[in-house]
Amino acid sequence: MNRIVITGIGAVTPMGNTFQVSWKAACSQRSGITPVTRFSTSGTPWKVCGELKRFDPLPYLSAKETRRLDPFAQYAVGAAFMAAEDAGLIEQAMGEEQSAGDSNPQEQNDYLNSGGVIVGSSRGGIGTLEKAFSLQRSADSTQRKIRLSPYLMPSTTISMAASYTAQKLGLRGYCLGISNACSSGTNAIGEAYRLIRAGFTGPVFAGGTDAPVCLTCLEGYGNAGALSKIPDQTASRPFDRHRDGFVLSEGACVIVLEEYQAALKRGAIIYAEIIGYGNSVDAFHQTRPLAEGEARAMNSALTSAGIMSDNVDLISSHGTSTPVGDIAECRAIHQVFGKRAARIPVTAMKSMTGHMLAASGAFEAACTAMAIRQSTLLPTINLHEQDENIDLSIVRETTTADISTAMVNSFGFGGVNAVLVLKKIN
Known about the structure:
By secondary structure, this protein is an alpha/beta fold. 36% of the residues lie in helices and 18% in strands. The protein has helices spanning 19-27, 63-68, 71-86, 105-113, 126-142, 152-156, 160-169, 184-197, 215-223, 260-265, 291-305, 323-337, 350-353, 358-374, and strands at 4-12, 34-35, 48-49, 116-120, 174-178, 204-210, 251-259, 272-281, 314-316, 345-347, 376-377, 393-394, 399-400, 405-412, 416-423. Helix 11 packs across helix 12 (323-337). The two termini are 16 Å apart.
């Protein structure tokens, strides 16, 4: 059976415009959550979000392309380029540490061309659609005629993040855009894992992207009761007694997955190995999570990995900071891990990033891979008074610890659940 490893990571998040900057911010316990600046929130009770700061797409896209693509696709392309550079698959980015062994440039180019891409997104180009609808309403009120952009439909479709990434990087082997709510990015990585296990020979770029920081999403999630009304950067507080919802954020994270021997052959740096993937659905409710469904995904991932729950050293939680969601995840962890549930270190990255929707699961998987490689437990911030009903060992400070095997949880509306198991490379 093929072994699948992570050899490159690229990300843009509210904490930084590269993965390394975001990782360092997380280690330093720095939040990326700030007051909303894109539009006025005077008429809403939701005042903060996780916006990208000064992200520049022009190193990856032309000015014309940026006008024709929704930000969610721009973020994905940027993250994918950074992942390709980190993996040593783009020549100009190869430094001494990341050189591609003894392989010649043509072999390297052929290898990249044979690659695939799977990118998940929950909301696709919703910001661009919102602007188009706003123009239409304005025109209707003044009886003016407007012509919508011919790029409105292609630029906002969910699959455009994957297909444009393939176009820009020259990936001709496989392409899939998926939308599975907030678990989309983790599902994308899991499906890439399955693809390589089934015999696909090229590298696969996989991850998630979303750009939902717009009034439609803020009011939509807010009116559903999902968003925090706390007006400062402490609003995202997973597992805290006073949590009241998640913080809407944007970003992208893409990782490079490869077959282990192929990665060794070209001298690639390896972050971690993916050894298991579980996917389940609650079949229960449109928005309310079900612990039993989440537990099924976790057990499925452990079965796929061929390990017992006793082997897991770290859980990267979904941890959105919603009252119902955090309780459900805690119950699922106890169902799977039994007496060990209260002792396994648990982290919640959304305390710092907010909820980047599809990008969050991918970013949390990337951070888990780096945590394994650097023997580091990342903190959960804003946890001042842990909910007495949540009997978990939440990591509150950046800590050094040997991590052999870790689990990454992602859950979404509709009861869709995705879980990955990562392992230190031997």
